[in-house]
Design a protein that fits this description.
By secondary structure, this protein is an alpha+beta fold. It has helices at about 25-45, 45-65, 75-90, 160-175, 200-210, 215-230, 250-255, 260-270, 275-280, 290-300, 305-315, 395-415, 425-440, 460-475, 485-495; strands at about 65-70, 70, 95, 120-125, 130-140, 145-150, 185-195, 230-245, 285, 335-340, 345, 350-360, 380-390, 445-455, 480. It has a domain at about 90-390 and about 445-495. The strands form 2 sheets. Strands 3, 4, 5, 6, 7, 8, 9, 10, 11, 12, 13, 14 and 15 form a 13-stranded antiparallel beta sheet that branches. Strands 1-2 form a two-stranded antiparallel sheet. Strand 10 (about 335-340) and strand 11 (about 345) form a beta hairpin. Helix 1 packs antiparallel against helix 2 and helix 12 (about 395-415) packs antiparallel against helix 13 (about 425-440).
Length: about 500
């Protein structure tokens, strides 16, 4: 075993993209209104106007600068109003269109997904190896996403040198996409931990059990599966790769154009990254076919269907089940019913609460710091999605230089006014300078966020499962924020491996 000191990681920078500093557009308008209200009594030279305008100005400044759970008051108001409008118009309730008319062109029913996923289409394309590849097409964002089920050896039980090598290989893999002409605009790693009752194992054992097996051995094996099966958990890991048609316009045109050309370019990119994935110790089990991708989505919406699909997929390998396709047709991937509440998302007899990682660890951490988040729980299933968006060198240089200039200007202003510089501000300035130096030395820059979801099938266990998740996040050094008013969007990003991306402009993180 190696005796070298384990490498630590840190230096995450919060992205700030407010309209003016950290203020949003409505927040900046409130500040302007507050200033006008304060100047009005002076212009009128009236004490009566002062008694009216000063309290109103104080309210405006409080709404603009006051922050609760990382959001300003005006942002909370916008969230609440938007949610109430959605409730009043019943847009927060989704009912499956099981009897939707079939298309005259394809003789198939349309995709039936709720909320922001309603625009997605699952396409089928040749994977270049004689199989079929399922591609999630977002016509609004002009993106095509392929999803792979992957396995990896892990980091917890190996020495620090191999940990460092695997993390460095993953960083090198991300670095290959930090170019100006890369058609890949997003990569997302999705992992979910779900209880396993052992039904698939029992089905496989029944089919492979020898008729002349000793009765005592069969009894012992049955008791072992009955006892250990319900205590087991299953972890599934997926990697989604998203291609932008805007970035790959010329390549798509050269491949024939349209959806066929876009799929061909995406498949070509997937083949090109195989060696890099192997170097990062990631083993691609399979690139998901349309029916398999639909099954992954379906089991996220309906956890109880996991048992049915596991049993059916295991039995489909038997000779008497020949002709039965694994998975589910893409038209049935969505839920039968879903409803978005202020703090929860209900879907097909299950309840999910989604969280956004608000703050990454402030101190340096080891490579295994996220391990507590997917600790097995028997009362709930957890999902974690880490989304990476590579940034080209030109934009990275502009963004980091702008960030460094803002912090330096703020420091100079504080020095001129005689105010002391806080330790937090000093550390942020050092991080910004270190990132710019790393970028100049050839390293890549990515936008990064993580979203988590906890799902239960018993409403009485929901708050307990949420408390356990928050405790494990605190052990990892993370600060979570419940995605109030946007639980359906959080579910789509956290519980489904469809590579849902980051907004162009964000407040806070």
């Amino acid at each position: 075993m190696s005796s070298s000191t384990p490498v630590t990681y840190g230096g995450w920078q919060s992205e700030r993209s407010g309209f003016m500093g950290r203020l949003s557009g409505p927040g900046f308008a409130l500040v302007v209104v507050g200033c006008v209200l304060l100047l009005t009594p002076l212009n009128l030279s009236s004490w009566t106007a002062a008694f009216v305008c000063v309290p109103l100005a104080a309210v405006a400044f409080t709404l603009a600068f006051g922050r609760v759970l990382g959001l300003s008051a005006d942002e909370w108001i916008l969230l609440a109003v938007r949610h109430q409008i959605s409730v009043a118009t019943r847009r927060n309730v989704f009912m499956s269109g099981a009897f939707a008319p079939r298309s005259k062109k394809t003789d198939r029913q349309p995709m039936d997904l709720p909320g922001t996923l309603a625009r997605l289409r699952f396409l089928e394309a040749p994977d270049g190896l004689g199989g079929a590849l399922g591609i999630s097409h977002d016509p609004a964002a002009n993106t095509y996403t392929a999803v792979a089920r992957v396995t990896f050896p892990g980091l917890a039980l190996i020495d620090s040198d191999r940990q460092t090598a695997r993390v460095a290989a993953w960083g090198s893999f991300l670095r290959t996409f930090c170019t100006e002409d890369s058609p890949i605009v997003r990569l997302a790693v999705h992992q979910r931990c779900l209880p396993d009752d052992g039904e698939a194992l029992r089905s496989w054992t029944d089919r492979h059990l020898a008729p002349d097996a000793p009765k005592e051995a069969v009894t012992a094996l049955t008791e072992l599966m009955d006892g250990a099966g319900p205590a087991a958990t299953t972890r599934e890991t997926y990697l989604s790769v998203t291609l932008s048609t805007t970035r790959a316009r010329l390549a798509i045109k050269g491949a024939g154009g349209g959806q066929v050309g876009a799929a061909a370019v995406l498949v070509r990119e997937l083949h090109a990254m195989q060696s890099s994935l192997s170097s990062a110790s990631l083993q691609v089990v399979e690139w998901l076919a349309p029916r398999t991708l639909a099954q992954v989505v379906r089991t996220a919406y309906d956890p109880d269907s996991q048992l049915m699909f596991a049993t059916r997929n295991a039995a489909a390998q038997a000779p008497e089940w020949q002709g039965v396709e694994p998975g589910v047709t893409p038209e049935l991937a969505g839920p039968a019913h879903a409803e978005t509440d202020w703090g929860t998302y209900r879907h097909d007899g299950a309840w999910t609460v989604s969280y956004q990682v608000r703050t990454w660890p402030q101190a340096d951490v080891y490579a295994t710091f996220l391990q507590p988040l997917l600790r097995p729980r028997q009362n709930a299933r957890r999902s974690l999605s880490v989304v990476y968006e590579p940034v080209g060198p030109r934009r990275a240089r502009q963004d980091l230089s702008r960030e460094k200039a803002k912090r330096d200007s703020a420091r100079q202003l504080r020095a001129k006014t005689g105010r002391d510089e806080s330790v937090d501000e000093l550390l942020e300035s050092q991080k910004a300078r270190a990132q710019d130096m790393a970028r100049a030395s050839g390293q890549g820059v990515v936008r990064l966020t993580a979203v988590l979801a906890v799902t239960v099938t018993d409403l009485g266990e929901l708050e307990t499962a949420c408390a356990e998740l928050q405790a494990d996040a605190a052990a990892s050094g993370l600060e979570l924020r419940r995605m109030w008013g946007t639980q359906d969007v959080g579910f789509a990003a956290a519980a489904l491996p469809l590579g849902q991306g980051l907004p162009d402009r964000r407040m806070g993180f």
